[in-house]
C-alpha cells in the first residue's frame, strides 16, 4: 500500500501518512512520498486547503528506529567513523526540504494530531501552517537528549527563544492542552471532536479563493524567512548529524543495538543513563 495517500474531498486535499503498523514512522521513502503528495495538491485546481493526518493511533512517531538505531552497524544516518558531515548533511537536508514542502505549499496546511507527533514527526507537523491536536495527544522532540537536533528548527519560530529552550533542553513530550497554552499549536480539542474541528476549519478556509490564500501564506512565510529561517535550518541540520556521530550519539547507537531501541529510548527519556560515560546514572540530585 502507498505510504502516503492523496485524496480530494471537494475543495479539501487530504494527505495521510500511511504506515499505521509502526505509528507512521519515517523510513527512506516516506519524505519523498509526502513531498509528492504536496506537489499533487499544489497542482490540483480544485484544492484550496490541505488536511495532513496520520493513519491509525498516531500522527507520526518519528524516524523508524528499528531500522536506523537497532540495526547493526552503519546505515544512512550513522556512518562508519571517521564520518563525512557533508554526506550526512546532504541526506538530512533532503529530508528537511521535503518536510518543508508543507511550509512552501501554495495551499494552507492544517495538521491533525492524535496520539503522538514526536521527534521527526514533530518536524513534519511543525512545517504545517496550523496544528490542531487532541487534548491527550503528545508532541515533543525527545532526541534532543541524545542523538538528535530538530532539523526544521520550527520550535523557536513558533514559541520564541525561552519556551523553545524549555522544550529543547528537556526533550519533554507535552499534551495538546499544554501545547496550545504555550502557543505551539492552534488549539487542542477532545479526541472525539478532533475530526469535526479540523474539518470545520478546513471547510471555512476552503471558501476563500486560492489566490487570496496563496498571497496571505507567502506574506506570512516571508516574515519568517526574513528572521533567518533558512540559515537556522542549515545549522540545525549540520548539528543533527553531529549529534548522531558524537561520542554520546555513538554510545546511544551501540546501546540500541545491544538492548533494543525501546530500552535505549526509555533510558534516554527517563534520564537514567549517562551517555558521556556510557553507564547508568546512579545519582541525579
TrEMBL record:
Short name of any one Pfam family annotated for the protein: ECH_1
Name this polypeptide is given: Enoyl-CoA hydratase
Record keywords, A-Z: Lyase
NCBIfam families, per the entry: PRK08272.1
EC number in record: 4.2.1.17
Gene3D superfamilies xref list: 2-enoyl-CoA Hydratase, Chain A, domain 1
Organism: Bradyrhizobium valentinum
Family: Belongs to the enoyl-CoA hydratase/isomerase family.
GO MF term (any one): enoyl-CoA hydratase activity
UniProt keyword annotation of Membrane present: no
Amino acid at each position: 500500500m502507498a505510504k502516503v495517500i492523496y485524496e480530494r474531498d471537494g475543495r479539501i486535499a487530504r494527505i495521510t501518512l500511511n504506515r499505521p503498523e509502526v505509528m507512521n514512522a519515517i523510513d527512506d521513502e516516506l519524505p519523498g512520498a509526502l513531498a509528492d503528495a504536496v506537489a499533487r495538491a499544489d497542482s490540483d485546481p480544485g484544492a484550496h486547503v490541505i488536511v495532513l493526518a496520520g493513519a491509525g493511533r498516531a500522527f507520526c512517531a518519528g524516524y523508524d528506529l528499528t531500522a536506523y538505531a537497532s540495526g547493526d552497524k552503519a546505515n544512512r544516518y550513522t556512518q562508519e567513523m571517521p564520518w563525512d558531515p557533508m554526506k550526512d548533511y546532504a541526506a538530512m537536508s533532503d529530508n528537511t526540504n521535503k518536510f518543508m514542502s508543507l511550509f512552501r505549499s501554495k495551499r494552507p496546511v492544517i495538521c491533525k494530531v492524535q496520539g503522538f507527533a514526536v521527534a521527526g514527526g514533530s518536524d513534519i507537523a511543525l512545517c504545517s501552517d496550523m496544528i490542531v491536536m487532541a487534548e491527550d495527544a503528545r508532541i515533543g522532540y525527545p532526541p534532543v537528549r541524545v542523538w538528535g537536533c530538530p532539523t526544521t528548527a520550527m520550535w523557536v519560530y513558533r514559541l520564541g527563544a525561552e519556551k523553545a529552550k524549555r522544550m529543547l533542553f528537556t526533550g519533554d513530550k507535552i499534551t495538546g492542552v499544554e501545547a496550545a497554552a504555550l502557543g505551539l499549536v492552534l488549539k487542542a480539542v477532545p479526541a472525539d471532536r478532533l475530526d469535526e474541528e479540523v474539518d470545520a476549519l478546513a471547510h471555512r478556509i476552503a471558501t476563500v479563493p486560492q489566490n487570496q490564500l496563496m498571497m496571505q501564506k507567502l506574506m506570512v512565510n516571508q516574515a519568517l524567512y526574513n528572521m533567518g529561517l533558512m540559515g537556522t535550518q542549515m545549522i540545525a541540520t549540520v548539528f543533527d548529524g553531529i549529534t548522531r556521530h558524537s561520542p554520546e550519539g555513538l554510545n546511544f547507537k551501540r546501546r540500541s543495538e545491544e538492548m533494543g531501541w525501546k530500552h535505549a529510548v526509555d533510558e534516554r527519556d527517563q534520564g537514567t543513563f549517562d551517555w558521556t560515560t556510557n553507564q547508568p546514572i546512579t545519582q541525579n540530585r
